[in-house]
Design a protein that fits this description.
- The complex is a heterodimer of chains A (439) and B (479).
- With 439 residues, chain A is an alpha+beta fold.
- Chain A contains 15 helices and twelve strands.
- Chain A has helices at residues 40-55, 79-86, 104-117, 141-152, 157-166, 170-173, 189-199, 204-223, 253-256, 289-294, 320-331, 349-359, 362-369, 389-392, 399-412, and strands at residues 18-25, 29-30, 64-68, 94-98, 123-131, 234-236, 239-241, 278-288, 301-310, 341-344, 418-425, 429-437.
- In chain A, strand 11 (418-425) and strand 12 form a beta hairpin.
- In chain A, helix 1 packs across helix 2 (79-86) and helix 4 runs antiparallel to helix 5 (157-166).
- With 479 residues, chain B is an alpha/beta fold.
- Chain B has two domains: 43-100 and 108-222, 3-Layer(aba) Sandwich (Rossmann fold), CATH 3.40.50.720; 242-471, Rossmann fold (3-Layer(aba) Sandwich), CATH 3.40.50.
- Chain B has helices at residues 4-10, 12-21, 57-66, 79-89, 128-134, 160-180, 201-208, 251-262, 276-286, 300-312, 335-356, 373-377, 383-403, 421-424, 428-436, 446-457, and strands at residues 47-51, 70-73, 94-95, 111-117, 141-151, 186-192, 219-222, 242-246, 266-271, 289-292, 315-320, 361-370, 409-415, 468-471.
- In chain B, the strands form two sheets. A seven-stranded parallel beta sheet of chain B has the order 3-2-1-4-5-6-7, with helices on both faces. Chain B has a seven-stranded parallel beta sheet with strand order 10-9-8-11-12-13-14, with helices on both faces.
- In chain B, helix 3 (57-66) runs parallel beside helix 4 (79-89).
- Chain B is globular.
- Classes of the chains: A alpha+beta (439), B alpha/beta (479).
- The A-B interface holds A 195-196, 199-201, 266, 312, 314-316, 354, 361-364, 366-368 and B 40-41, 44-45, 68, 83-85, 87-92, 106.
Chain lengths: 439, 479
């Protein structure tokens, strides 16, 4: 965490730069376990409140909160504002909530950075949260359409009978099991990953090996105390939760190879090499570089560039980072070789490995980027030095802030100058950002 | 309108029973048709077998991969052409199994398409490549699949032997079409002129896609005649274009108007004053406008041109679909009937096109004229009609040469037996014969003709001009 020291020297007048001052998250736990009683707002309160406390940042310094989420509470979708109110922050600390599927958390951070660069704000909290355990069980449209007149109008007894008579057959009116499926294609995301594995020649062995690596590295980060500095314990009715619940130090590619494919007969995607449904929240504090210095914070990293892209969800749903990462690099005037640290969201091992293959392909670069040379070769062991979503879990909106926290802190260690983040998201979206060390 | 045999064939139990008992009743296949507008990858994840050492390997590889096909190669030597594009799009080819006796488990592709590049066949002896490619693989052809053979126009090859071999492709594909028609599969031939290689993607995608349902046993000629700036758009290919469809009130005209509109065109629906009602209805449905005119009247050409200029500043696509039959043997035919058929079916097409070419039809435009199989083949009682419809062929071919420099293509469509109001009025025995006497053993739908017209109107059909494309299900009559 950034040490607090008052700076007396004033920084030179230059273009405003947004810097990450600190970050914190709740433990990430499997859905329907310890956090079931905490909704996404409560999780956001835990991460945000904990972060303010760790940074010893006075609420009076805050300008606002930008939050990302995917499963938004229907009655209070602006989670950011609810967090501010629940934390009893000054009423003027405004809040907005954004959604861009799994890139929502990074979206919140880059929106905050943009606002700071434009001079709209000096101190913002940005992050995200999701509670799959609290996903509202939605009723089929047929039920909504027949019951809405009763709930919203002035129904007569006859209307009740008419509504009831529409509720057949029973199979059409029972709540349906929610699944992560594309609205346009109806394809479940695991099926998309399965197809990407097949088309890009990603073997089961490679996927399991990558998943094992993710677990081992995350376990090492827990054991070394690295994650303890990024994670705040959360109190539940059944006691305190201190650490991540999904990471398995004792797993291996061999053990993972025994799991059955979930999405296709003879397929390769299993529960072991896919990211699990997770509850959790993560937040970072972003400031203008000047304000950070004047408040006495040593920034961890600056947000240098970012990019968002869209691809056809019917083709290769999760290939977005292969386009977004080179785009973000280009905007920063960099190539992959300049970057010492690459961190990718691991929706599926198959997806990460497919993207690595695309980045390493000159043919891909020619077709999709209009360049002669490949973006760059990255071996699976070159990326995600501290594990990723496969092991740690993936509360959709929280992943972006988790990645920015871990990577900013690593940059602040001083060994590397630049880091590249990549995230794939539903709807065929891709996101990327470049972070740089602040000297 | 309804085809009883087709309905019977669609009933699984009845189909099985008839086949088991061995009744000599033809069982036409249920044809696969395009649902909804054109898509980026019409061959999405369909296994397509590719073979032949020709001159088109690279462009065909690229076309197949970008159209979403999963390529299977008959020959490992072809892998090089697929390497880069396959890697970029995640569609690397697989080597097709040929051993029918002991097939490998898990490697049992059912081919939704077969593409053979025969441009390299330069002698009669080398025709064995056709046999060697198709013979071991035909058992793996899925119902409703598409076969496309690509060759060089015989008049453009260097030796008599090569001309013989390239000409042989025609009889070969026609026969293949007839052998697989009862399974709802199509087989067609694309003749590619030297220099037109880069224009083959559009025609190939079309002939492999469900949109080409009722086209089988046909050659398509691809040339570099018409000026082309390289424009290609697979999705909403007609966005921003203005299309005039004559005879749009019903049948083929209405189906065409609706398809062109779904692909982004603003459609002007032209029909006679008496058909104001149905024409307006079509125009409303497709979000277009109505233009009421008698195409055969002397003032029609200038009035149509003026209205297109005033409303849309010109026109990009002209579909001459309006037509009539006035059947009588020549000995008993009144001159009025002769005149009406010629005037509406041919003279109006000529006069209106001439007028529109004077500045109303924009560069890179498209003209599609409706000919007819009956017209080409000749028919008792149709001297007038056949004269007009075969006249359309000459008109089309001449105009195609004339306007190629402006990027305008001119083609004709010759429909075979299409289920319309016209064919529903044919006496039952003759109608039945008309339906069955074709490779596919059934009538086509107006939308099948509409899809063919739509293809000719797309930017991707820039290589197709002066063609007479039959949409006839492989009809046995006609040349």
């Amino acid at each position: 965490m950034a040490s607090k020291r008052r700076s007396t020297s004033s920084s030179p007048a230059a273009a405003r730069r947004a810097v990450v001052v600190g970050g914190l998250r709740t433990p990430f736990v499997k859905a329907f376990t310890q956090f079931t009683q905490l909704d996404t707002i409560a999780l956001g309160v835990a991460a945000t409140g904990g972060l303010l406390k760790r940074l010893e940042l006075a609420a009076s310094e805050l300008d606002g909160i930008v939050w990302g989420g995917v499963i938004l509470p229907p009655t209070a979708p602006n989670i950011a504002r609810e967090i501010a109110l629940d934390l009893r922050l000054p009423p003027r600390v405004e809040g907005m909530t954004v959604t861009r599927a799994c890139a929502s958390g990074l979206q919140a951070i880059t929106l905050a950075a943009a606002a700071i660069e434009r001079g709209e704000a000096d101190v913002l909290i940005a992050g995200g949260s999701d509670s799959t355990s609290n996903a509202p069980i939605t009723l089929p449209p047929k039920v909504t359409h027949s019951l809405a007149p009763l709930a919203l109008g002035k129904p007569t007894p006859g209307d009740y009978l008419a509504a009831l008579s529409q509720l057949t057959p029973i199979s059409e009116v029972l709540p349906r099991q929610p699944k992560i499926a594309e609205r346009t294609t109806g394809e479940v995301m695991g099926e998309s990953a399965e197809r990407m594995a097949k088309r890009n020649g990603i073997t089961r062995e490679a996927q399991d090996a990558f998943a094992a690596q993710s677990h081992h590295r995350a376990a090492a980060a827990i054991a070394s105390g690295r994650f303890a500095e990024e994670v705040a314990a959360v109190e539940t009715k059944r006691g305190w939760v201190h650490t991540d619940g999904l990471v398995r130090a004792d797993t291996s590619a061999e053990k993972l190879s025994k799991l059955r494919p979930v999405f296709a007969k003879g397929g390769t995607v299993t529960a072991g090499n896919a990211s699990p449904l997770t509850d959790g929240a993560a937040a970072v504090v972003l400031m203008s570089e000047e304000r950070a210095k004047s408040l006495g914070y040593q920034p961890l990293a600056a947000v240098k560039s970012w990019a968002y892209v869209g691809v056809d969800p019917a083709d290769q749903l999760l290939m977005g980072p292969a386009l977004a990462m080179p785009k973000a690099l280009e905007r920063a005037g960099l190539t992959l070789k300049d970057v010492g640290l690459v961190d990718m969201h691991e929706a599926f091992a198959a997806q990460v490995l497919s993207v690595l293959k695309m980045l390493g392909s000159a043919a891909f670069a020619r077709e999709f980027l209009g360049r002669d040379q490949a973006v760059g070769e990255l071996a699976p062991e070159d990326i995600n030095l501290f594990g990723g979503s496969l092991a740690i879990g993936h509360p959709f909106g929280a992943t972006g802030a988790r990645m920015v926290t871990t990577i900013s802190r690593e940059l602040a260690q001083g060994d590397r100058e630049l880091a590249l983040l990549g995230i794939c998201a539903a709807g065929g979206l891709g996101a990327a950002a470049v972070l740089e060390r602040v000297a | 309108m309804s085809d009883m045999l087709l309905e019977l064939a669609q009933n699984q139990a009845a189909r099985k029973l008839i086949q088991r008992v061995g009744l000599p009743i033809p069982m036409p296949a249920t044809l696969t048709r395009q649902r909804g507008p054109a898509v980026e990858r019409p061959l999405m994840d369909r296994a397509v077998l590719f073979g032949g050492q020709g001159e088109l390997t690279a462009v065909l590889a690229r076309t197949l991969v970008l159209a979403g096909a999963s390529p299977w190669l008959a020959d490992a030597a072809l892998e090089g052409a697929f390497k880069d594009v396959g890697e970029a799009y995640g569609r690397s080819p697989e080597l097709a199994p040929t051993d029918l006796e002991a097939p490998q488990p898990g490697k049992q592709p059912r081919y939704g398409g077969m593409v053979f590049d025969a441009t390299g066949i330069d002698s009669p002896a080398a025709l064995d490549q056709l046999y060697l490619f198709f013979h071991p693989q035909l058992a793996r052809l899925a119902p409703g699949s598409r076969i496309v053979v690509l060759g060089r126009t015989p008049e453009h090859v260097k030796s008599a032997g090569a001309a013989a071999a390239q000409s042989a492709l025609s009889g070969f594909t026609r026969s293949l079409a007839k052998e697989f028609g009862k399974r709802g599969a199509n087989a067609n031939l694309i003749y590619v002129e030297p220099g037109a290689e880069d224009r083959v993607a559009g025609p190939l995608r079309f002939l492999l896609s469900p949109a080409s349902t009722f086209i089988t046993a046909q050659p398509l000629y691809v040339s570099a005649k018409a000026r082309w700036d390289g424009e290609l758009s697979w999705v909403r290919p007609l966005a921003g274009k203005v299309a005039l469809v004559t005879g749009a009130a019903r049948g083929i005209g209405a189906a065409t108007a609706s398809i062109l509109a779904a692909e982004g065109a603003t459609v002007v629906c032209l029909d006679r004053l008496e058909d104001d009602g149905p024409a307006s209805q079509v125009a409303r449905q497709v979000g277009g406008s109505v233009l009421l005119a008698d195409v055969a009247s002397p003032e029609a050409p200038s009035s149509i041109a003026r209205q297109l200029e005033e409303r849309h500043g010109g026109v990009d696509i002209v579909i001459h679909n309006a037509g009539v039959t006035r059947d009588k043997t020549l000995a008993r035919m009144k001159q009025a009937h002769w005149d009406q058929a010629i005037d509406i079916n041919l003279r109006a097409v000529h006069d209106i096109t001439r007028e529109l070419l004077g500045g109303t039809l924009r560069d890179n435009g498209r003209v599609v004229n409706l000919s007819s199989i009956a017209g080409i083949a000749g028919n008792v009682g149709q001297t007038n009609y056949a004269a007009s419809k075969s006249g359309v062929v000459g008109l089309t071919q001449h105009l195609a040469e004339e306007v190629a420099g402006r990027g305008i293509t001119v083609n004709a469509i010759a429909p075979g037996f299409i289920e319309t109001r016209l064919t529903a009025a044919i006496p039952v025995m003759i109608r039945e014969a008309g339906r069955r006497m074709s490779a596919l053993g059934q009538g086509g739908l107006p939308e099948d003709v509409g899809q063919a017209i739509h293809f000719l109107c797309t930017p991707a059909a820039a290589g197709v001009t002066g063609n007479i494309l039959r949409v006839c299900g492989g009809a046995l009559i006609g040349a």
